[in-house]
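Render this sequence as a predicted structure.
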Amino acid sequence: MGRRDSRADLIDDDPFSSSYRSTSRVRHIHQRTDEQGTIHFDTKSPGSQLPPAFAQFFGQSRWQPPAHHAGPLWHFSKEEKAHLRQAMGAFTLALGFMSVGGISGLGSLGLTKWTVYLLLSMPVMFVAIGPAFLLHEIGHKLVAKKNGCWAEFRADPKGLQMGIFLALLLGFLFMAPGAVMVAGMVTRRQNGHIAVAGPLTNLGLFIIGIPLWGIVLGLSGAFETLPTGTATQGIGQGYLIDGSLVWQAMLIDVGVYWLGANLFLGLFNMLPFGPLDGLKVKDWNETAFYAVILIFAVPLLTMFLGIWTPTGLLLTVAGPISNLIR
């Protein structure tokens, strides 16, 4: 017996599925099912008493317009929240392993220092880089729901495990934590908008981060009170000196990594390969694709060339503020 093509489910529900009557599904606008399981096709406009042919002749819509998502945009199901917590936890742990150089860092630091630096760097990474990942995915979700789709984040357990393993073993981060699952009929343009929403969220976070962390660092006086030589040490290693917690170094690193992470994640996701956002954006509009990718590539390239640095940029904003409150 032949198997039903799964793509047919986008057009109509499978009446022979065992879960056809027992599960909650998104109803398609072209059909409805009564309590006995009979499928009815509605061709009349809402409230119209005319037959379809007459309704069309008199200019009345023959088909019901697509029903957009009626629930709140910021709704997160219990399952989605659990997946987000799982992804954020694994992402933060992997970033912590990366900050201490993975297992190889044990040789130079020793077990005690390695563990302490790991525990100190994880909250810094959580605040600095966590929003870049989390709000990127929420950006996809909100635009998808705005276009009438069901959209929820789902973590990839194997991707999380592989990312943690690579960070621990090799000291660098490469992780596929999961993605927003979208269900619904959208045009190529709408699909491009959903895809580009993530990178544009990272761009917004980068722009907002300049005055935000500049003001925070200026008001706190972190640059002025930072112990000499602390800034030259690796992440985590400059957070504890002679048994004292150097909060200034932690705060500066939050701002610095906030800027760098949002630029990098935005550019990486705009690459036109595999499941990345760039392929969907390019499929929708090549001009938009090249414009967005240049927005991320230019500041990253100039940063690597030493024309500017996140630390210098934040110091430029924080300096005048510190002088005002002295």
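Summary. The chain has one domain: 78-325. Residues 20-31, 40-47, 50-58, 61-69 have pLDDT under 50 and may be disordered.
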